[in-house]
Amino acid sequence: VQLQAFGGGLVQAGGSLRLSCAASGRTFSNYAMGWFRQAPGKERELVAVISWSGGRVYYADSVKGRFTISRDNAKNTVYLRMNSLKPEETAVYYCAADPGREGSNMTGDYDYWGPGTLVTVSS
Fold first, then answer.
1. pLDDT tens-digit profile of 89-101?
2. Taking the CA of residue 117 as centre, how many other CA atoms within 13 Å lie in the half-sphere pointing to its CB?
3. Residue 75 CB neighbours (<10 A)
4. What is the pLDDT of residues 18-32, one digit of tens each?
5. Residue 56: CA atoms inside 13 Å, Cβ hemisphere, count?
């Protein structure tokens, strides 16, 4: 499956962005989806996960209550709504697909990755 993330950009601290990730090539609903991010000089970290049906979602503690992951299987798209953004959340955000349909919290379980979109949060 091919993935392409959109929606990154420059935002002030406290602001909001919505990232989108469009999938193509295989049946989108066969995959759980995850959003990850990697800040300069840091390891890639899991941000949020959504199961194939949307029935299970998971958030990293650092984003709970501020970020919302959702998907539209008819549009082959997964979204990440990010509110109250902080400067330390400046990173490249990646979407990824996990063939385990309920979604894993382990980076290694994601077989397909998009090229990422840069989010810059200014202070």
1. 999 999 999 998 8
2. 19
3. 12
4. 999 999 988 999 999
5. 13
CA atoms of 27 and 24, how far apart (whole Å): 8
- Residue 15, C-beta contacts closer than 8 angstroms, at least 6 positions apart: 85, 121
Helix, strand, coil percentages in the chain from 3-state DSSP, rounded to 5? 10, 50, 40
Structure letter (DSSP) for residue 42: S
Residue 80 CB-density burial (10 A; 0-12 exposed, 13-18 middle, 19+ buried): buried
Instruction: Write the DSSP assignment of 50-105 as a string of letters.
Output: E-TTS--EEE-GGGTTTEEEEEETTTTEEEEEE-S--GGG-EEEEEEEESSTT--S
Sequence letter at residue 58:
Y
pLDDT for 51 beyond 90: yes
